[in-house]
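Review form for a predicted model. The reviewer records the input and the model, then writes brief findings.
Reviewer: anonymous (R2)
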Amino acid sequence: MIPALKNAEFLRYGVMHRNTFINSPACLNADFSLKSKPEVFFAGQLTGVEGYVESAASGILAAVHMYEKLNGRQPQIPDNTTVMGALSAHISGATENFQPMNANFGILKPAEKRIKDKKQRYAYLAERALENIKAYKSSLNIK
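Model under review:
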């Protein structure tokens, strides 16, 4: 099909990138710490969050949770009405066939009321998430 490749030999077909991740539900707590060694934390794509923003946010959360533990406090997990809370639940939840997940409205806790219009539903979910993440942030003892 491509004249310049008419004599090319393909030893192995591949993919653009390989997504390597641990079986987080078996290994990690919702605070991104290792179940067998709670003083060890993981973050990023390795945990089963997918995407640059999600990976960065998991690192921030892991750092916040580590800070809380180092200061003798129990880490607080954002609730699953927020994207990071929902991703934390995903990586620590018991699933049979764990696969990485990116941020999307489908992982959030559903709205308390039924909203048929998708645009209005997503606006409601986003507003609720913003309120809850602000409450989460103000509950932290980080200076």
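Findings: The helical segments are 24-27, 52-70, 83-92, 118-139.
Further findings: Residues 20-139 form a domain with the FAD/NAD(P)-binding domain fold (CATH 3.50.50.60).
Recommendation: see findings above.
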